[in-house]
Write a structure and sequence with these properties.
Layout lengths: L5 E7 L13 E2 L5 E8 L2 E8 L2 E8 L2 E3 L3 E3 L3 E16 L7 E15 L6 E9 L2 E8 L8 E6 L2 E4 L4 E4 L13 E4 L10 E4 L5 E7 L7 E7 L2 E6 L8 E3 L3 E2 L2 E7 L2 H5 L3 H4 L15 E6 L1 H4 L15 H14 L3 E4 L29 H10 L3 E7 L4 H17 L4 E5 L14 H16 L3 E5 L14 E4 L7 H4 L7 H5 L33 H10 L4 E3 L13 H6 L4 E10 L3 E8 L5 E7 L4 E6 L8 E8 L12 E8 L4 E6 L4 E8 L1
Parallel strand pairs: 23-24, 23-29, 24-25, 25-26, 26-27, 27-28
Antiparallel strand pairs: 1-8, 2-3, 3-4, 4-5, 5-13, 6-7, 6-12, 8-9, 9-10, 10-11, 11-21, 11-22, 12-20, 13-19, 14-15, 14-16, 16-17, 17-22, 18-19, 30-31, 31-32, 32-37, 33-36, 34-35, 34-37
Length: about 675
């Protein structure tokens, strides 16, 4: 489909300035979001309102470079212009096929009055679903490097709302359960940071197009003011530049309802269009894995009598995949280098081409091909990037030679090379390098222990999914994720992009594993995850034999991973969520609904359905169950419905429901 574009640029607006240091605000196309820029005693500030509600009070902008070079004061306005942009573009894959990118932009160029008289450009964009801004600095022309020691960007919030957050600067990266507190009580936190304001607005603070720059965390400095805190290098520098730089977009999603945060595509719209010519190898899919068995101690990652990644086990899993109708299989631990302490910070030396003695890669690939099952490659770096980057071409070339087009890449460890934060500039550049390298070898990527998503999947659609939160494995060897965890993830972590949460556990009361850990959901809620927690690759994470002969498995066989459209029917952060998505390749719709510890009943209006009749295939919690009491019981029923129908869903504590609406 051709992009539909309207563009108006280069209109100088000095004539509308109320004074030289303040200009008219830029409004979103619908007029609800407003950004005001002004200079206060030579210091740049911005503020944001939504439908006359204050969102961000005047907040400072600017930088501190090395040698205590403050670059946020003594400015005058050199010029400013406004422009408008409107296009509709098509995702290669995604939760919505056609996305509108519609905004009004204000670009201001500032100049220091004294000294070097350096210029700083700040671009502001106002969308109907939020606002964004970024800095552009061309340097002084000397060619000398510039080291950013601090970014002074503030978000002075209008009120002391409730925030859902995870701490920054901890060894487990983003893998923490979310806490809830007032903004004034925040730690230094990762983004996306989601806030419910006292005025009833729902806000998410994040960044887009994070390239060759440090990741932004947010620190509470005073009252309800948050400040950008750039993740440093090990030597204390925040961002190393060649003398010029362009920052990521600082984004604020703004919504009147929490579900509107989920269906905002602001981050994608702030990234560049697709750069890849060959998309033939990029395929959304469902997959099995020799994975859950390792986490519950049925198998080991390393060579042993219980080694999971043996030729024998791999062929067994391929047979299961064939029986279940799944055409992808992930095999972890097939290569030399794994030890019982592989996950510790020890700079482990993995080989990315040499198989263990009990695994024959070529034999397994050929067997999978004979059954119509392709392998997903796996590279675990252990955060020893020195070793990995020495071998990356050989490792990826091996997969390309074997006809493998998908790869999972892990970076387990508290620091990269035991030295640098995963989300500092070093890590940002490493992940982008690996992603581009994967495209050279026609590999679609699933990052674990990743840098956070900032929308780069638009530019590099081989960036399929990533971890970046407490996923399903925490239910195998810890106290587990509580029933409200995914109800928070959907409104926080998931706002940044797809997550490989690895759902689909049917054996919820494990007999194996550590102390018989429970998974804190019902089985129906596990089904709902395939709709509510978006990813273009979805794992069927349980041991495959737990799916055989299970009537509820039919939903996993039917549910797509690539969508035409997405709508949120109801939702409240940490409480409940009901999402519907339309299949990209049929007239069918799919619904997922989930709740926290509370039992709920929903009357769902089906007015999202197109004209005609549908068969609603309902997978619901059986009466009387909870996540801790008979959670595997599912009530399966069918009824004929249309767009005028109302469907009643009853969700057990910790439960959910999944529905396929099959067009008749």
């Amino acid at each position: 489909m051709k992009n539909l574009i309207f563009f108006l640029a280069g209109i100088f607006i000095f004539s509308s300035c109320t004074q030289k240091n303040q200009i008219e605000p830029v409004l979103s196309p619908n007029g609800e979001n407003k950004i005001l820029f002004e200079l206060k005693d030579g210091v740049p500030h911005y503020s944001v309102t939504h439908s006359e509600k204050n969102v961000v009070h005047p907040s400072k902008l600017g930088f501190v470079f090395d040698n205590n070079d403050t670059f946020n004061e003594g400015f005058e306005l050199l010029n400013a212009n406004v422009s408008a942009f409107d296009e509709t573009w098509e995702q290669v894959w995604g939760e919505k096929r056609l996305i509108r990118n519609h905004y009004n932009q204000l670009s201001v160029v500032l100049q220091e009055k004294e000294g070097e008289k350096r210029n700083l450009e700040i671009q502001f964009r106002a969308f109907d679903d939020g606002v964004a801004f970024r800095y552009l600095f061309e340097g002084d022309g000397s060619g000398d490097s510039v080291i950013i020691m601090d970014e002074l960007t503030e978000f002075s919030l209008a009120d002391n709302g409730e925030a859902w957050w995870i701490p920054a600067y901890r060894d487990n990266r983003y893998e923490y359960l979310y806490e809830k507190s007032k903004v004034s009580e925040l730690d230094t936190v990762h983004t996306p940071l989601t806030i419910k304001s006292e005025g009833g607005l729902y806000l998410s603070f994040h960044e887009a197009a994070l390239i060759d720059y440090a990741s932004m965390t947010l620190e509470q400095t005073e009252g309800t003011t948050l400040k950008c805190n750039l993740v440093p290098w090990s030597d204390g520098d925040r961002v190393k530049t060649d003398g010029s730089f362009k920052t990521p977009w600082r984004t604020i999603q703004i919504a009147d309802k929490p579900g509107d945060l989920i269906t905002s595509y602001l981050s994608l719209n702030l990234n560049e269009p697709n750069k890849l010519d060959d998309l033939s190898y990029i395929r959304p899919s469902k997959y099995l894995g020799i994975w859950w068995g390792m986490h519950i101690s049925k198998y080991t990652f390393w060579e042993s009598e219980k080694h999971g990644a043996s030729t024998k086990n791999s062929k067994m899993y391929i047979d299961w995949a064939k029986e279940l109708g799944i055409d992808r299989l992930l095999i972890e631990g097939w290569n030399v280098g794994w030890t019982p302490a592989w996950y510790e910070n020890l700079m482990h030396q993995f080989s990315f081409t040499q198989s263990t003695p009990d695994f024959d890669l070529e034999e397994v690939v050929n067997y999978g091909n004979s059954k119509g099952v392709k392998l997903i490659g796996y590279h675990e770096t252990g955060s020893n990037l020195i070793s990995y980057l020495d071998q990356i071409d050989d490792g990826m070339a091996l997969y390309q030679k074997m006809g493998i087009n998908d790869i999972k890449i892990g970076q387990v460890g508290s620091r990269l090379n035991m030295k640098e934060w995963h989300h500092g500039q070093f890590g940002v550049n490493y992940y982008r390098y690996v992603l581009e390298k994967a495209a050279e070898y026609k590999l679609a990527v699933n990052f674990h222990e990743p840098i956070k998503d900032t929308g780069e999947r638009r530019t590099y659609p081989n960036m399929m999914s990533r971890e970046g939160a407490c996923g399903m494995e925490y239910n195998a060897w810890s106290d587990g994720n509580p029933p409200n965890h995914t109800l928070i993830l959907a409104f926080t972590r998931m706002l940044s992009g797809p997550m490989d949460y690895t759902p689909g556990i049917f054996d919820l009361d494990q007999e194996q594993g550590f102390n018989g850990r429970k998974v804190h959901t019902t089985l129906a809620k596990q089904l709902a995850y395939y709709v509510t927690l978006y990813s273009p690759i979805q794992m069927l994470a349980d041991l495959p034999d737990n799916y055989i002969g299970q009537p509820a498995y039919q939903f996993l066989a039917d549910v797509p991973v690539d969508w035409e459209d997405t709508k949120v029917l109801n939702g409240e952060i940490g409480e409940y969520l009901t999402t519907v998505r339309k299949d990209k390749y049929s007239d069918d719709w799919f619904l997922g609904s989930m709740t926290n510890e509370k039992e709920r009943e929903f009357e769902i209006n089906l007015d999202f359905l197109e004209e005609g009749n549908y068969e609603a295939q309902v997978y619901a919690d059986a009466p009387g169950i909870t996540w801790g009491n008979n959670p595997e019981e599912v009530a399966i029923s069918k009824q004929e419905v249309n767009a005028e129908s109302v469907l009643t869903l009853k969700l057990a504590p910790g439960g959910g429901a999944a529905v396929r609406f099959k067009k008749l």
